[in-house]
Give the backbone structure.
Amino acid sequence: MKNHDFKQFPLGGRRCALAALLGLAVAGCAVGPDYHPPAPPSGLRDDSYTPAAQPSDTVSAPVPGGAAQHLAMGQDIPALWWTVFRSQALDQLVRSALEHNPTLAAAEAALRQAQENYNAERGNRVFPAVNAQLSAAREHLADQGKTVNGVFSLYNASVNVSYAPDVFGGTQRVLEGAQAAIDYQRFQLEAAQLALTANVVTAAIREASLRAQLQATGEVLAAQRQQLDVIDKQLQAGAVARAVLLTQRSQVAQTAATVPPLEKALAQSRHALSVLVGQLPSTPDLPQFELAALALPEQLPVSLPSALARQRPDVRASEALLHQASAQVGVATANLYPQFTLSASYGAAGASPHELFQANNVFWNLAAGLTQPLFNGGALTAKRRAAEAAYDAAAAQYRATVLAAFRDVADSLRALEFDASALQAQADAEALAAETLALAKRQYQLGAISYLSLLDAQRSYQQSHVALAQAQAARYADTAALFQALGGGWWNRAPSGAATP
């Protein structure tokens, strides 16, 4: 909705003028724009998230984690999406994080706060305010030559009622904005849950990847040290020069130097997992994760593009802010109209407590008021224009959030496609490098090649062996990223009081 859309709500609308003439109605018209959900993005297609058609199946590789994955367009996302990895340890860790993570607890508290703020606004604005008042006073008057006693008491008991009829819908718009604030916090909670589960899964996959890289590096290092022993014996027999031994020692040292950074990253990954589940990094009983213990799902559900904006909690939260901004335009518009008040009181007053119950000491009053802004230096119209500008900003932010959501899905789908191809190529490269190294070792032992040729074969195998572990882990991480990009299936969980798409 743009600024010119607000012009359909003129200040002298016939319906509102009629409502004012009819009297102080309890429920009147609601000035300002009526909110409507934003239209889908222009150019939206339901057959693909990317310019080129996405392949329905990824390629496979003859290694663990190399299975082909089928993309099932239009299939719904499971609520407990992390269970597709078929790891009981991972499932328990995610459930523990959902129960104990402090960031999630803060989001839940923010939702409760928004709900109570709505209740407070509703109580203050929808229902009459009824207050009981009881007072007692004792006073001494100055002696001015009178013979009467200058000391007297006054007791007062009364009930006061006040009410502001919502003739022009200002209260309705305030409550509409408060409800939108509840929706925002509810979707913020869903977004926090999705981010938490994705972070736990990603951290577990990263840990498994680092363990695989450490294992691959350890295997390479063991082979290099074994080759070093052979060269050392050859040196003692006078078969090789000392430079060959020094070169091999240097290669062993370089490979060993890659271990501490991997161990540091592994420790940091473990610390991150501890904090995500609401525990101290010193917690010793966290499960350990390895790629072999995770199953790569061969069937991946992919929501239709037309459903994405209703599934992503960050998009729904941004839409709630847009709704709230629309309601604020209505509030600012209502402030330009007359404000009505009704009040009444009933009570009794007397010089002693027992006189409060005498009929001749009863008093009451009824009052009605109207306040019409006449001149305020343009403050009210400026506030209305500011509310319209805030709506335009919220609409632009909503569009940016939607575009980012579609980008995330497109990136995830392309990552699944290209990382599967990368793993296939890396598996071939690792197999060839291993075969080349084995051949180079035999040829070196027979004196058919120089040591430099053997060294090149060792380096090539080391790089391809570690890269294979990284490529395998990327397949699992891509799968988790896709589920996160699609919204995580929160709408299928349907807890009590949860939002619906």
About this structure: Residues 1-27, 496-501 have pLDDT under 50 and may be disordered.
